[in-house]
Amino acid sequence: MPKLIQIFWSFFKIGTFTIGGGYAMIPLMERELVDNRKWVSREDFLDILAVSQAMPGIFAVNMATNIGYRLRKAPGSLTAIFGNIGMPIVIILGLATCFSFLQDNEVFESIFKGIRPAVVALIAAPVFNMAKSAGINWKNFWIPLVAAVLIYLLGISPIWIIAAAIVGGICYGKYKERKEAQV
């Protein structure tokens, strides 16, 4: 079981070196918590990721809460949360104080334009890793593709997509059970 200070520093590193918000943290969290520290398995990480996305609130805080709780219950959750949000709060406060002076600065604007593609890559990388870990292949890749099209192009709420996925999963499970029972 990790010490609280270890949990704090791991999440502090993740919060400090993530640019682009919660989803950009996924590869850093996975590398730190699954690969380096081996505090959670890859399967558990994906489960925590799914639950954290479904929970209301800030995604990065939800991840820290769930992983911290798994490691050390309530003290682990609080420690992970404070580690995760500590440096971003300091950075945001610093940027907010300086923003009025820097908002028309061309160098500052160029820096943010340069960071944007990196943030997109940081968000896209875990999507591909999660798809691979979740067993997405050429036979079932259409499911997330259709979900994305329904959400993006038709404006259907993700809640309805999740509900349909649950119903579809239950029906498919029952279908497989019946098919196996017949054999």
Structural features, described:
By secondary structure, this protein is an all-alpha fold. The chain has two domains: 4-135, no CATH class; 137-183. It contains seven helices and no strands. The chain has helices at residues 4-16, 25-36, 42-54, 59-102, 106-133, 142-152, 158-182. α1 (4-16) runs antiparallel to α2 (25-36) and α3 (42-54) crosses α4. The radius of gyration is 20 Å and the shape is globular.
Number of helices: 7
Radius of gyration: 20 Å
The residue fraction in helices comes out at over 70%
| Overall number of strands | 0
Oligomer: single chain
What low-confidence regions span 5 or more consecutive residues with pLDDT below 50? none
Summarize the main sheet.
Answer: none
Mean pLDDT: 89
* N-to-C series of helices and strands: HHHHHHH
Main structural class: mainly alpha
Strand content range: under 5%
Tell me the domain tally.
2
User: What is the global morphology?
Assistant: globular
Terminal CA distance: 46 Å
Labels describing this entry:
about 180 residues; mainly alpha
